[in-house]
Design a protein that fits this description.
The protein is an alpha+beta fold. Helix content is 59%, strand content 14%.
């Protein structure tokens, strides 16, 4: 399964577990007020937000380079306020001068914290639906949303789009069944995504078509990468039940220019892909901006 898809699932699980721990922390507060029979630092010290289980989880995430850091920073700010309001409330209770304001501030901080968590969970779930459940790859919509900024940041250094289509995939489904066809799709997605750099990306375009964004400084380097991936898949044996299935793909490869839209790039890559299929399949067809093509294969 795609590493980004797995990371989203892991984040959702960690968030749910640490949030449950925070509800248990609320019960611990009540026990502390009733009997003082819990560890003080975990409940009402000025740095209690660093000692609770949720705080451990959150601070670990904040040490990582993440695209969702803005959500985590907002949660962190509101998490700290919850513990501060709790600290002030317990001090007021111990000194017997608690007021409605102490309880109201604690309630408001909890609600703000919960709202921040809900916003983040919605973001994660929306992001998760942007990934293909079968292969774990991001879907076209993620590429649509990120293409402009990606091209602006990386296009000058050499960015290529490879549009690939599995050759004669209908025969795979007809001969081995759709369930085994799904195994083939997963196998291809896993193999390619594991054999490109972490800074590169792969997307499920639809059906048996996929998009791979590659970093290369020139056409020759890009073709070398695309051909390596094509040969890897041609050698791959996918075990599906009692069957051993081998496939090939045809790829349309083109450089992404900084002033281009995704639609323009895909239209050009699609022309190259169609040309490659007409010329015999199982090849990489390079196309330039003038629509001149060049075929590469074994």
């Amino acid at each position: 399964m795609n590493r980004q898809f797995k990371e989203i699932d892991e984040t959702i699980r960690g968030l749910n577990q640490s949030t449950d721990a925070h509800f248990r922390w609320l019960v611990k507060i009540l026990r502390f007020i009733d009997s003082r029979n819990v560890d003080l630092p975990d409940v009402c010290s000025k740095e209690a937000h660093l000692h609770c289980e949720f705080g451990y989880w959150l601070n670990t995430r904040l040490l990582e380079e993440r695209e969702d850091t803005n959500f985590l920073l907002d949660i962190n700010k509101k998490h700290i306020r919850v513990h501060q309001a709790c600290h002030n409330l317990i001090n007021a209770i111990e000194e017997h001068h608690q007021t409605n304001e102490h309880f109201d501030l604690f309630e408001q901080s909890l609600l703000a914290f919960t709202d921040a968590l809900t916003i983040y969970k919605v973001h994660l779930l929306q992001l998760r639906t942007s990934y293909d459940a079968l292969t774990g790859l991001p879907l076209r919509r993620i590429l649509d949303e990120s293409f402009g900024s990606m091209n602006k940041e990386l296009g000058a250094n050499g960015l290529y789009l490879l549009l690939l289509d599995i050759d004669h995939f209908k025969k795979v489904n007809d001969n081995y069944g759709h369930l085994n066809g799904d195994i083939v799709l997963r196998s291809l997605a896993l193999n390619i995504s594991n054999n490109i750099r972490r800074s590169e990306s792969m997307y499920r375009y639809g059906g048996e078509e996929f998009i791979v964004l590659l970093h290369a400084s020139n056409d020759r380097e890009a073709v070398t990468v695309a051909e390596r991936l094509r040969r890897d898949i041609a050698r791959l044996e996918t075990i599906a039940g009692e069957n051993i299935i081998r496939i090939t793909f045809t790829g349309g490869l083109t450089r992404i220019h900084q002033d281009e839209t995704l639609r323009e790039v895909l239209e050009r890559a699609d022309i190259a892909l169609y040309t490659g299929k007409k010329s015999g399949r199982n090849c990489t067809q390079l196309i330039n901006r003038d629509l001149a093509t060049q075929k590469f294969c074994d």
